[in-house]
Specification:
This protein is an alpha/beta fold. Helices cover 65% and strands 7% of the residues. The protein has 20 helices and five strands. The termini are far apart.
Length: 410
């Protein structure tokens, strides 16, 4: 008689927690159970559910901020967005960045059949079902992106923008190497590709600072509500840093979090450079008029044509309505008289007024922005493009017009 080697199924289903990265840290009589997850893994979802079922917890912490938690809980949240207020308050760029990241996540979902961050949703839903408090411990993604952008130089900033652009424009499947990064690391780091690790300031803003922030949030909640055991569900890339920060942090958590929530002021030299350029152009125009009225008239014509023309071209490339294009062309040359108000506010405002977003635009927004052509199809994303491209065109126009006018003096 022959015997066969036992098969894995003979011993029942595999343990969902087998080989899952789990760390345990005790701090002031509280045990923090840190579960490292992959944001695109069904195994991580199963591990979260199994851990909550098997062990008693007084609270469950998740790597989410208030806004991402709200969007996960309420898929209809986008419908409540006031697009005009977004533009007026100067948040159009941030909304566009968030949509670009959501395009990256949607590509993951379509390719692998699971929503990015499904394990985080499973964690807070399981906690709520058991009436366990949920702690949101990650930093607001807008603050993270702003700190990252302002902490690096020109080329790294271009890397951030190219990473966001690639999230939108790429139609290729996300490769196995990138998936492995997501299993070991972080969604933001993966979206911005390899240069995130090559730039120390960028890596600090995207990853290391968030390790410190999440540890501070855990300590802060522990002080507010003394608990015995807390489950913290975070991306595997944060596991080591979070464990170290919990063990080593000495700064009071509220003070540390306030520091990490502060967005550094932007560099002043670009503003001073712009003011200097406007002053130089104004002086040049006056001198040209004194030299010859025709030369002064030509200088004003160049200013209007270059600034208004390129701003209008930007609105046109963004898919703007003809009146939105006209608004961009009219407002852009007036920039010296309205400092701090970009021409994109006018063009995008007209666009919203003429082409009010429909319910269908809100319903299909996440799907539309997952392909680059969809940004021009959807009224919401198209308005954001009009805003951004109008400003970009107007900025280029200022420099080209200034160069021509100053050259006329020689």
């Amino acid at each position: 008689m022959t015997t066969e080697d036992p098969r894995p199924e003979d011993f029942g289903p595999p343990d969902p927690l087998q080989d899952q990265p789990i760390r345990r840290v005790t701090l002031n009589d509280t045990e923090f159970v840190l579960l490292g997850t992959a944001h695109v893994s069904r195994a991580s979802v199963a591990a979260v559910q199994a851990l909550i079922e098997r062990e008693p917890f007084d609270a469950v912490a998740v790597e989410l901020d208030t806004n991402r938690h709200a969007s996960m809980r309420d898929p209809e949240l986008l419908r409540k967005m006031d697009l005009f207020q977004v533009i007026r308050q100067g948040k159009a760029g941030l909304v566009a960045a968030n949509l670009a990241l959501s395009a990256f996540q949607r590509r993951l979902a379509e390719q692998y059949g699971i929503e990015a961050g499904a394990e985080l949703k499973a964690a807070f839903e399981a906690a709520e079902a058991r009436a366990i408090p949920v702690w949101l411990i990650d930093r607001d993604i807008g603050v993270t992106l702003k700190r990252a952008y302002r902490s690096v130089g020109f080329w790294d900033r271009m890397g951030i923008l190219s990473g966001l652009g690639a999230s939108v424009l790429s139609s290729e499947e996300i490769g196995e190497q990138d998936i492995e990064k997501l299993k070991r690391g972080d969604m933001l780091e993966s979206a911005f590709s390899e240069f995130a690790k090559e730039s120390e300031p960028l890596y600090r803003s995207l990853i290391a600072e968030r390790d410190s922030y999440m540890a501070a949030r855990l300590r802060e909640e522990q002080i507010k509500t003394p608990v015995r055991r807390v489950l913290a569900v975070v991306g595997a890339g944060h596991l080591g840093g979070l464990e170290r920060e919990l063990a080593e942090q000495k700064t009071p958590p509220v003070a540390l979090r306030a520091t990490l929530d502060t967005v550094p002021p932007g560099a002043r030299w670009p503003k001073w450079l712009a003011l200097g350029l406007f002053a130089a152009i104004a002086v040049a125009v006056v001198l040209l008029f004194k030299r010859d009225a025709a030369l002064g008239t030509d200088a004003l014509r160049d200013w209007i044509l270059w600034t208004g023309g390129l701003a209008g071209l930007g609105a046109l490339l963004g898919g703007g309505h003809p009146l939105s294009v006209l608004a961009a062309a009219v407002v852009a040359p007036l920039k010296p008289f309205r400092p701090g108000i970009p021409p994109g506010v006018a063009s995008a405002g007209v666009e919203v007024w003429l082409r009010k977003p429909r319910v269908a635009d809100f319903d299909s927004l996440r799907h539309d922005v997952s392909v680059w052509t969809g940004w021009w199809k959807n009224r919401i994303s198209r308005t954001l493009l009009v805003f951004l491209l109008t400003n970009f065109g107007g900025m280029i126009g200022v420099w080209l017009a200034g160069f021509r006018i100053l050259k006329s003096l020689t």
